[in-house]
Amino acid sequence: MIDLTVVKIGGNVIDDTEKLNDFLDAFSNLNGKIVLVHGGGKLASDLAGKLGVQTKMVDGRRITDAENLKLVTMVYAGLINKNIVAALQARGVNAMGMCGADLDLIKAEKRSNTKVDFGFVGDVTAVNTLALCKQIECNSVLVIAPITHDGKGQLFNTNADTVATEVAVALSRFYKVKLIYSFEKLGVLMNAEDDSSVMPVLSNVKCSEMVKSGKINTGMLPKTQNAFYALSKGVEEVVIGNFVSMETNHSSGTQIVNS
């Protein structure tokens, strides 16, 4: 099988110009077939304040009502996506920006069976691997925004970690996939207050222990859940770390293992 790398870039990196440039420099040096999935950062919240659109958060997760859906679609699939594409083009990368509605790439359904109504937040139901593979085989580097659709005209805001995971799982039928969750930290930390306490390896047993003790929570919890899910569904390798984790033959970040 041909190697393919799926990289997810976090919102905190997008918010920091220096970190974003470092990431894009490293990303542009990757070899082989690549897909990039990006999050949203705080730009949508900042713009909401300027436009007078109320933003509601529950446990760090956005409530996406009709007005906020318009906003995140404009910001995620528009401004952020095209800025990343333009920056990659400037680095010689043949990037093409898309969201889940384009080419019917990613279908989703409204999240249900939760205590909180998150509004137009969608959970992925299908990935159009044929469309993805056609673009990848044209040597395009896809840059995917986490806006999905239901195939009936309704857009959804979907967690970017989940989008990256589902894309990686779908493509693992055709490629040898490495999935990298790239964010502002060096990896999964044993001590959240100590940036140097990076765990080189994280097993599902150790992860469960850290979740129970509260060492893994909030944003890292869904990231690790997605990581182990990806491994269980055929993704060859999963790493959580910063942009250095993408560099060829560079051992860094946290390797996720099923044991």
Automatic annotation (TrEMBL):
Stored PANTHER family: N-ACETYLGLUTAMATE SYNTHASE, N-ACETYLGLUTAMATE SYNTHASE, MITOCHONDRIAL
Compartments where found: Cytoplasm
Name this polypeptide is given: Acetylglutamate kinase
EC number: 2.7.2.8
Site (Transition state stabilizer): 8, 223
Cellular component GO terms, alphabetical: cytoplasm
Similarity comment: family membership: Belongs to the acetylglutamate kinase family. ArgB subfamily.
GO biological process: L-arginine biosynthetic process via ornithine
Principal subcellular localization: cytoplasm
Pathway membership, UniProt: Amino-acid biosynthesis; L-arginine biosynthesis; N(2)-acetyl-L-ornithine from L-glutamate: step 2/4
Source organism per UniProt: Labilibaculum manganireducens
